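The data layer described in this paper is built around a simple, fixed record for each protein. We quote a single record here, exactly as it is kept in our systems:
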Amino acid sequence: MARKSVAKAAEAAAEGLAQEMGYIYVDTELTHEHGAAFLRVYVDAPGGMSLEKCETFHRALVKRIDELEYDYLEVSSPGLDRPLKRDADYERNLGKEIELRLFEPLDGQKRLSGTLISYDKESATIEMPEGEKTVPRRGVSKAAPVLRLEEELQAEEEAETETDGNDEGNERGGRAADAQGNKSEQGQ
């Protein structure tokens, strides 16, 4: 079976299974590395993906794609830098900073970064320091959110400090909630 056929068949199976399990299908890719075919499926779930959810999805998916030609199947969460591929991805990132990598330069640039202010089936518009720029979506090789982890961690620490300072009784509970939040984020 041709490479595109394997990827398309796996995508259809994964998308259907994700819907049945209440997960969000994100992407499928088939790559060849070190002489082996790696089939990678990315799924998400409300509240995030745990290792157990990935394992459950993997076991169910293997049964559906047994006839396909691949060497290794990997099921993973798309991570924090989940790419923007579908309209729902663009919708989720409206008002947020994203980076667009282009197949061909646009006004001399192949990488653009700015706040996503609108999109439709044909294009995406970002606000950049020099103004708005509309980019044809078919010309985008990769679109992804810009992560500012240091800023987010600092804001979280400041919020925790405010909570700790306002009510000593919340200190222990606040830390437990943070630990649980961090733990679940690491499991994604």
The mean pLDDT is 84. The CA atoms of residues 111 and 152 lie 24 Å apart. The chain has two domains: 3-76, 87-145. DSSP finds five helices and eight strands in the chain.
